[in-house]
Amino acid sequence: MRRLGGGRHPDRETGGACLHGMSHTPRPHDPRGDSNAAPRATWSRARAGFRLALPVAAVLLIAAVAITVRLLPTGSEAPPAAVASGAPHLVFAEFGVRSDRIYLAPADAPDQRTLVDTVEHADGWGINPATSLAGPLIAYTVIPTAAPPERDTPAEVWVMNLETRNKTRLARDADLLVPPVFTPDGQGLLYRRSNGTQQEIVQIDIAALTRRAVHAEQTTFGMFPIGIDASGALLFARLSDGGTDLYSTQDGQSPAFVHHLSDHIARGWTLSPDGRTLSYLTAEFVNERVAYRARMLSLDSVTEASVAPSLQQGAEQYGPVWVPDGSGITVGQEALVRAAEPAVSVTLDGAVRPLAAAEQGFDVPLGWSAGAGYLAVRWFSGTNSQNPGLDSTVIVDADGNRRPVEVATEVIYIGWYSGV
Amino acid sequence: MSEGRRTLLLAFVSAVIMTALLPLAGGDSANACAFDPRRPYTYEADQQRVAYNLALDAVSTNALFGSDPFFALPQIETGTRASRRDAAPFIPSALLKAISWVESDMTMAARSVRFDSIGEALVSFDCGHGMMQVTTGMTVPLGAGGKPSERQALVATHYAYNAARGAQILSEKWNAAPEQRPVVGTDTNSDPAVIENWYYAVWGYNGFTGPGSTRSNHPLDPQLGQWPRPAFRCDGTQSRNRYPYQELVWGCLANPAQRNGQALWPAIPAALPDMTDQGTFQAMSVGNWRFPYSDMDIRTPQPAHLATAPGLPSNFRDSLLGAPNLQSSNERVTIRLNDPSTPARATVSIRNTGTGILTWLAEPSANFLVLTPPAGTAAGSGVTCTASACPHGTLTIEVNPTLLPASSATATITVRSPNGGAGQVTIRVDVIADFEVGAPGTSRAR
Predict the structure, then answer these.
(1) How many Å apart are CA A237 and CA A259, to the nearest integer?
(2) What ipTM does the predicted assembly reach?
(3) A221 closest CB neighbour out of B122, B213, B274
(4) Most-buried pick from A135, A353, B58, B221 (CB within 10 A)?
């Protein structure tokens, strides 16, 4: 028993002339197609031959067009996206049942967004992007339209240039739910692929269009690429019945254990810009309650510390993201005591700076723009993970102004772009 | 036309026919399903899903199929791990409706088929059939001689049987606890009337899959993206990427689809397990993910919602099943492959002189006959069927010339019905294909 996927099929629900059933769909052999033909006795032999050749010719024509279209560089005729250099733009996708629309939105006026491109996908399953850019490149996994709409369908990996709108497919064997990760130099892309219980982390050289598996293992659970650290090693998290562990591997060597992150499932791992510190969320138990809270792990000394442990003890923390200069992280907090709780920035030495809060609910940070002028957050109207309420995406600026990104469907956060 | 041109033309016709039949005769073995390479035809009922909702209500209490071993809902176990016992067959019908929506938008037929109509059945890439996307027992033909069975035809073509089979499979997921699956409701005697207690069973309907794997439905899986996640709204505005299967169903329970301003089922804001609760969180720990998952038992998520048996109209059986009757007949058709002026196919109507939906299954005596569809439906009186294909079933007969034993051949097709009495349609098919083969010009004397 498996889910068909699909989401809604609104076209049939609305009726209309083009919504005929199978019985109305003429096929090449369909006798109903003869109804407009001349009586059989008047058929000329040439005409008979022509009628027989027509379907074959049509098939050949369609094939030729398809091949031609396939060979054309996608999006090559689209005008380049207009991004003023230095002006932060939020890059996001607006989810659609069958296609996602990728936009650039000025941080100060997100309603004046520009459509970059549309990405078609299997019904109900949107793109899963890397949550950072490499220059003008964005990357994402996606299930193509013709593939089964299932979470384990091998996904494609694409990069798209926001300036030129050119897209390049890099792989067709990725795990959809594991987002790709750019290497620090932006020249490479990491993704995960699976075959049964065999999982591999693959690194793609984007320019050369080559790829190699940098780590493979048999696993009952899973491993997740995190990124490349300051030493150039691949960091990945591994789930096992012992919890969540951090490993590193370099130059094809066997992976080295780095740190035990949790006895349970850790999440939200993010590398600092200099690749020397890892932030992540791990479960803490306080008074018979469980709360995911942020921690930081120095990769140089392999020492772990809670993030501002005095912050609302026992309260949940959400979505740690690094401040662009690497001086600390920003985390959201549950509205445990008050109606609204702001996200806070915490420096590596523990200094805390609250950001602007909404009138109600809590924020989950998504990412800072370059220069830390703007923070994209997912705002929830509720109190915590058990009662999150409604959600929307909001841009918070340094003055505390909050600007919603208003779309009809879900906003899929991709990152920030400030031009070239 | 010269003899040579005629021969060439016939060869061309043969090639075109074979090309057309190629995808039908071969098929991808990796994707083989009960009726492959063809698709059965089904009846798609009304857009408001009145018929489907009634069927799901009826099967939720086993009101429709009594003790039928294949379609009846079995007894549902209740009680904690130490005190499990059998109880009356019961599934909250709203759960079945939400599952059906997640699976298929609660439809039996392919997207191109109109409501109140007959057309190609909905069959997914992995052989999920119909509104409940029944996969179990539908992946290979299970009838005699490697043909689809009558039960498979019923599941694929008749919504009441499809609903019943889906309900039975969900009940199997429930009854797998505690021997093979964990229990929900350690504090409520694991009462099946409590909707929240079906959390693990619904998870299992899509696959009881653990964290980190590509098919994971584990609610704490990091693959599901940022934490926390908003509730699934079931309105087509959210990607499924971020949700385990059971949360899709819970979302549709709380947010029923609407058609023409009317909700298709009552909204039930069922509670999900509280991951801030220490007992629940630890039960879900990755360390407990080992067969038979006995350390994953949890209390009933709160606030809990109690389901009651749905009220059924007195004529529900007539509405859902009726009394279909296959009209017997003897037909004879001739298919000429050597005459391009005639279609190389024949059609025969399958008629239901009774009431309700008749399921039929066609079986050829020879492998050169290609039948479309291999199984189908015919609407009886009292069934709304407004498309031109209605109310009769239409069997289209074609010939795969590469399998013909000789230039002329005769075979028969027998059409029977698993729910429409003992009648049968017998079709004698005469095939004439006396192609003149040869290479024109060979040994021609000048």
Answers:
(1) 10
(2) 0.87
(3) B213
(4) B58
